[in-house]
Prior knowledge:
Structural class: mainly alpha
Low-confidence stretches: none
Oligomer: single chain
Number of helices: 5
Radius of gyration: 24 Å
Distance between the termini: 33 Å
Amino acid sequence: MSNFENDLKQTLSGEDERFIKDSFDEGFYASVFDSLTDKSSIYRWTWVGIFLFSGILFFAIWKFFQADTIKDQIMWAALAIMGNSAQIALKIWFNMRLSRRDILRELKKTQLAIAAAR
């Protein structure tokens, strides 16, 4: 260890060190998998919707290549585009909800740190 690291360890108390370790998230994928065990069922229903619209997308693509007429191809292509758009919208909304949850968690940690400093 360098001198700076030693000085930093001596300066930080055990409580500060625990707070710093708790402040770092495991990452995006850990947050996604944690959402499945969350008490709110809205995350689970979002996953159901994502898989449902993905299934519609793949089914429409499969039917597109089996269609005999141009009209049928246009219809299946439109359904594929709508299924893809719907699943993308759900994924964006889901990521915004995860970000909101993480921001609120960080704000709460900051509130607790300020309250403890007083």
